[in-house]
Design a protein that fits this description.
about 70% helix, single chain, 434 Repressor (Amino-terminal Domain)
């Protein structure tokens, strides 16, 4: 086993930032996707695709969400990075497992 492997959840995909946005922010605050889009100055389609886990949270979107919801930029970026790393690992784990680490 490699060190990188232990940093990534093995059995289940991490929550997408869109799921967090929908269920932890929009629904409890009773904010529609259109309202949020208007507040953030972006399209409703962009918000919708994020909440459906069909679109990544970019740094631009992360800044906007962090400012509005009074969270950190890193909160949103880390959620997205967790998904990106998990998906990359799932797509290449056979190749990664063939790599022998150097012993220092």
């Amino acid at each position: 086993m490699h060190y990188v492997y232990f940093m990534i959840q093995k059995n289940r995909r991490p929550l997408h930032p869109g799921e967090i946005l929908q269920y932890e922010f929009l629904e409890p605050l009773k904010i529609t996707q259109q309202q949020l889009a208007n507040i953030l100055g972006i399209t409703r389609v962009r918000i919708n695709e994020i909440t459906l886990c069909k679109r990544k949270v970019t740094t631009d979107t992360a800044f906007r969400l962090a400012i509005y919801f009074n969270t950190t930029l890193e909160f949103w970026i880390n959620l997205q990075n967790n998904i990106d790393m998990w998906e990359t690992f799932q797509n290449h784990k056979v190749e990664y497992n063939k790599i022998q680490p150097v012993l220092l």
